[in-house]
């Protein structure tokens, strides 16, 4: 059961800053959890982590158009603000920040950010606009909220590495906290896009995590062979297409030249019908 | 005569932040003046403006390599920190921030910023790396210093417009203050690069301001004709080459389609020998 205490909502930068300034005057630290809404237990874990680490917590709900390509699911991405607000209140969040697209991107804006490094390849290859859009909106949100710390899920591991690089390269004074992936009882990483899956597709989706885990074990005998094995196993399990299965250096996501000689991560993106799922874990 | 009271110098981000945090705890506002050193009266005017507007003022001296192209004057750009520190102390600056290149750009950095809009054309066409370099270093410096306001000279008008756009597009909570161009008794805009000029070249350089002023008057009879007249007049005055003379909209530096129907600025870049000078003024 979630607490349904009404949560204050800020819809403008000015209103958001008024809340945060008031907290700062009282000496409170501020944590921040940026989301695209359609909240599930994975997001609430991030909020609870922020609540543990900071006195006051802002969660944003903003379906960021700059990180979707024209053919992607911007229009159908689930939006359910009232339910999100109730869930955030139950997780002891202090403020919901839900700006309009016009508030975030006024007419005439032209600035773009390219993170390079960890943003190249994998998701960056299949969704070329994504990490530029993420870097831009996170930079803006950090400047709007000015939190002490922000919590991101390891579910989007590459995004987490991109944000760490962005923060380091631009000297943004925000501590970036990564939080482990929440999974259902069958190992499926929680995702707002799981809502697109039919019961039969859900059975297939639940195989992803186990196949990546076994490929991670096989990686010690050869990275390329383990990646190929995982792709075949995913197709055999019922996936309709594999964007990538890759074993990479965990921090900058560069490929290994030969044997694994640094902390490694296996990452995958695969499709079931029209639904695209991602997952990753330490090797 | 300048006061030669020793000025505290911070060489690391950590040391800078310690100074600023101490001021913040005491409730002081903070102003910031970023420079590339080789300070002259133009810079000191910016510092005095910051001192008028904020309780404490940081000036940075950093010759930013990312805004120079390989063929430009990065290696020979004048460096004179002891003299700069004495001048800043005389202007009542409170802290000199002089980081090393390694402190500003640690190995492994990959993030870049493109401002677009006002960064396109004019200086952006002749020095394609410049405004990306400026946007990156100013973003970093703002995150390092976290000032309430920052003062920039109108001498670099296009840069000032680029920084205003950057700050607006990324929601950076810093007030950007433009300060009018300081000139010598003959109208020459003060510039660190004036030090490259021989006495004969100096005489030619001093004609730039008057020719732009007259072209501004002629602009009401036609923008293109006024630009062409100014280019010819500059060559006749002894300039060896004209990168551009352009009458543009003052805020976004876009060209006029026909008659001047918005606030306008005339901007020029011209060479005397190997020295490249820029200037601008309201039309």
Automatic annotation (TrEMBL), chains A, B:
CDD domains assigned: PanC (cd00560)
Enzyme class: ligase
Protein residues bound to (R)-pantoate: 67, 159
Gene: panC
Protein name (record): Pantothenate synthetase
Subcellular location: Cytoplasm
InterPro entries in the record: Cyt_trans-like, Pantoate_ligase, Pantoate_ligase_C, Rossmann-like_a/b/a_fold
GO terms of molecular function: ligase activity
Annotated catalysed reactions: (R)-pantoate + beta-alanine + ATP = (R)-pantothenate + AMP + diphosphate + H(+)
Residues annotated to bind beta-alanine: 67
Keywords recorded for this protein, A-Z: ATP-binding, Cytoplasm, Ligase, Nucleotide-binding, Pantothenate biosynthesis
């Amino acid at each position: 059961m979630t607490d349904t205490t009404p949560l204050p909502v800020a819809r403008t930068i000015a209103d958001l800053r008024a809340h945060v300034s008031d907290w700062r005057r009282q000496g409170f630290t501020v944590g921040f959890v940026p989301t695209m809404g359609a909240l599930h237990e994975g997001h609430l874990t991030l909020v609870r982590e922020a609540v543990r680490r900071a006195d006051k917590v802002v969660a944003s709900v903003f379906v960021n158009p700059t990180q979707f390509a024209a053919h992607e699911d911007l229009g159908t991405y689930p939006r359910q603000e009232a339910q999100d607000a109730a869930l955030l209140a139950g997780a002891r969040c202090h403020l919901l920040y839900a700006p309009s697209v016009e508030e975030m991107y006024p007419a005439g804006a032209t600035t773009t950010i390219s993170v390079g490094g960890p943003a190249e390849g994998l998701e960056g290859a299949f969704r070329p606009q994504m990490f530029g859009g993420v870097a831009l909106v996170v930079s803006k949100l950090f400047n709007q909220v000015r939190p002490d710390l922000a919590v991101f899920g390891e579910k989007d591991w590459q995004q987490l590495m991109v944000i760490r690089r962005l923060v380091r390269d631009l000297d943004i004074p925000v501590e970036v906290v990564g939080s482990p992936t929440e999974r259902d009882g069958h190992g499926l990483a929680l995702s707002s896009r799981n809502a697109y899956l039919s019961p039969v597709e859900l059975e297939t989706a639940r195989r992803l995590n186990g196949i990546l885990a076994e490929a991670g074990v096989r990686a010690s005998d050869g990275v390329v062979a383990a990646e190929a094995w995982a792709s075949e196993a995913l197709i055999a399990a019922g996936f309709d297409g594999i964007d990538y299965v890759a074993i990479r250096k965990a921090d900058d996501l560069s490929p290994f030249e030969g044997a694994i000689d640094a902390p490694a991560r296996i990452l995958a993106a695969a499709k079931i019908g029209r639904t695209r799922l991602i997952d990753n874990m330490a090797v």
